[in-house]
Amino acid sequence: RDIIEHFQETHDRTDKLQCPLCLKTYSLYGDKGYNSNNAVSFMQHLQKHEDIKSRNQLNCRKCCLKFMDEKALKTHLTDDHVSFKDFDNIETYQYVATDTPVQMPRPDEKQLKVAMKKSLTVKPLPQQAAFAAQNLEDMAIYGVIGDRCCECDRGMTVAGHYVAYLCCTKCRYSSCCAKAMSVHVQLFHAGSKPQFDLGKSVIMQEPMFCVCGYSAHSGNKLAKHLGS
Q1: Residue 129's closest CA among 195, 188, 194, 193?
Q2: Which residues contact 114 (CB under 8 A, 6 or more apart)?
């Protein structure tokens, strides 16, 4: 319900359409502008839901969503109905006195499936990679519930987020966000640099011209000319 209400409030009067039964979204605009085929596909999608509404085996038993086929239902169960307990960057729900309380039964952890953690996690900040110019552990932040950090997109009230004003020891980069500093060190100061193979350059049959008169059969040469 919250997702549907969010979509209606945030994406009202836009080119986005959402199926209220399975939450699949459509966009009426593509790379080439308005695409009427997407509107037709959306209507056909809703009609298919109507045609198979008697097939209860395609309904999720853990929520109110309904799907077109078993594959979509299985993907939904695998991705959406799993536990993210002990995951990094997961925010604990903060109850505000003005909110309407929601009562939920305590889940049975013995039968609870745990989501697979991605391998591309942010490594802890190595020692001597940054120094703390100012301690922020006792800093109090007010009126930021729901606001997100512009550097790591986590909630600003997540524990361990703002521990200190950190300064990189190898360059002039600094940040109060511990995760942003870890990402910075991994990208710019971690041992070996990534190697990129762009392949052989493509030589065009017809030359390409700059407004100054310069021409080249290689897009790389023309790009270098424009950037210099």
Answers
A1: 188
A2: 82, 83, 84, 85
Distances (CA, A) of 213 to 208, 220, 222, 224, 226: 10, 17, 11, 15, 12
Contact present, 213 and 221 (Cβ < 8 Å) = no
- Report the C-alpha dihedral over residues 81, 90, 20, 52, rounded to 10 degrees: -20
* pLDDT band at 209; cut points 50, 70, 90: very high
- For 53-62, 138-147, 216-225, which range has the lowest pLDDT when averaged over its residues? 138-147
Q: Dig out the tokens for 16 from the structure.
A: 């986005």
Q: CB-based burial of residue 201 (10 Å sphere; 0-12 exposed, 13-18 middle, 19+ buried)?
A: exposed
Please state, in angstroms and rounded to a whole number, the distance separating the CA atoms of residues 166 and 178. 8
- Does 54 have pLDDT greater than 60? yes
Which of 46, 44, 50, 54 lies closest to 19, judged by CA? 46
In total, the chain counts a number of residues equal to: 228
In this prediction, residue 110 has a pLDDT band, given cuts at 50, 70 and 90, of: low
Please count the other Cβ atoms lying within 10 Å of the Cβ belonging to residue 128: 8
- Per the structure block, which two tokens stand in for 67? 């799907």
State the Cα–Cα distance between residues 115 and 147, nearest whole angstrom. 26
DSSP reduced 3-state for 65: coil
Under 8 Å between Cβ of 52 and 58: yes
Query: Which has the closest alpha carbon to 113: 75, 73, 85?
Result: 85
Query: Could you give the angle at the alpha carbon of 85 between the alpha carbons of 80 and 91, nearest 5°?
Result: 85
Q: Which residue has the tokens 């995760």?
A: 179
